[in-house]
Write a structure and sequence with these properties.
The chain has 160 residues and is α+β, with helices and mostly antiparallel strands. α2 packs antiparallel against α3.
């Protein structure tokens, strides 16, 4: 919410190009100063290196928000317990999805959808995102496969 408000304040003041990073949630206005789209890295969910990326997306005017099981978690008896809870069980969401990055006009919408798709899984989450106009997603599964919605499939650069 706050990075959307920051973007609105910048626009109100006549700022046309900006990159706002609110703890990993990204909101961009316009293009970079060289006229090219912003390049936003999607963090590798199983790398210990904080700067390791698994994919890159180019974006002008919009938000990218990621939910995943890899930043806030603990291990107990070989099992990963993360902070995204399944509302039906009250336990951390289980399934093949380990990271969801949603691209939308507003960060607050992207955040809500990224968390929801983490719980829903690939088979239900991907069609949901495909059905929403102006919304796209990059979903990473436990086999480190990168799945992208049709609206951005051609703009996602996978990093080896």
């Amino acid at each position: 919410y706050i990075i959307d408000r920051a973007a609105e304040a910048l626009k109100k003041d006549g700022i046309k190009k900006a990159y706002i990073n609110g703890g990993g949630d990204i909101r961009v206005l316009g293009t970079r100063t060289d006229g090219k789209p912003w390049r936003i890295g999607i963090r590798h969910p199983r790398s210990d290196a904080a700067d390791a990326v698994i994919a890159v997306i180019e974006l002008t005017d919009g938000a990218v928000v990621t939910s995943g099981d890899y930043q806030r978690f603990f291990m107990a008896e070989g099992k990963r317990y993360h902070h995204i809870l399944d509302p039906f069980t009250g336990y951390p969401a289980e399934g093949e999805v380990i990271s969801v990055s949603v691209i939308a006009e507003k960060a607050v919408v992207a955040d809500m959808l990224a968390t929801g798709v983490m719980v829903m899984g690939l088979d239900k989450g991907l069609p949901l995102i495909e059905s929403l106009p102006g919304v796209d997603a990059i979903i990473i599964t436990s086999d480190l496969e990168v799945h992208a919605t049709s609206g951005i499939k051609d703009r996602v650069e996978q990093v080896p």
